[in-house]
Amino acid sequence: MLGLIFKTSCILCTSQDAGAHALCQPCLDELPWHDAPQCPQCGTASNGLTCGNCLHNQPDFDATHALFSYDYPLDRLLQHYKYRESLHLADAFAQLWFDKKTLDYAYIDLIIPMPMHSIRLKQRGFNQALEIAKIISKNANIKLDYTACQRIKFTPPQATLPHKERIKNMRGVFECTKNLSGLNIAVIDDVMTTGTSLNELAKTLKQAGAAHVECWVIARTLAKPYSY
Ligand SMILES: [Zn+2]
Ligand SMILES: [Zn+2]
Fold first, then answer.
1. Residue 176 backbone dihedrals phi, psi, to 5 degrees
2. Domain assignments of the chain as residue spans, ordered by start
3. How far apart are CA 15 and CA 87, in angstroms?
4. Ligand of minimum distance to the alpha carbon of 73
5. What is the CATH topology of the domain spanning 33-220?
6. Per residue in 177-193, pLDDT tens?
């Protein structure tokens, strides 16, 4: 019988007491949960009401939910996930989100992962947003569609560009080939920094008929300024 008991080791401290999400309780408590009062639309720190930035320059997405703030050790974990193909982390993130019960799964009709250009997909071998989206979709029983929207323009990584260039860089990047009329959509990405890519994606989905678009991201940077 003993052979049937599996213990998982914690991905951060290697203690043997990790749960289904592969993290032990002390490490979980230490993680930078994105729980401080924030703007419901963009997820940046605010008094809990819509922030000035969103009021003055309405984003195309309607809400943002981040599991973590982009801080230590999440930044390391996400880098690890993105570049070293630690795909088991996708399970951990999806499980943590499920446990946290902050997402309104019943309201969402469709999950769309941030599309990756085919050239980059070839370089990296996997789309980190899609891997997380697959598990959330399964856990929450929400339809997943990763073909409706494609990245049709190959662009330099956003992080290498100044803010104004980021917006220009993203224009016309996505193409949606399906009618999404009336659907409430959750867009999934690993990290949200300025929100430029997510905003361009939300714009494309709304042009295809989406009624409501919200961003579900693993980590949200708190750095300002940001731009749509
Ligand atoms: Zn641990
Ligand atoms: Zn805001």
1. -115, 125
2. 1-30, 33-220
3. 20
4. 1
5. Rossmann fold (3.40.50)
6. 999 999 999 999 999 98
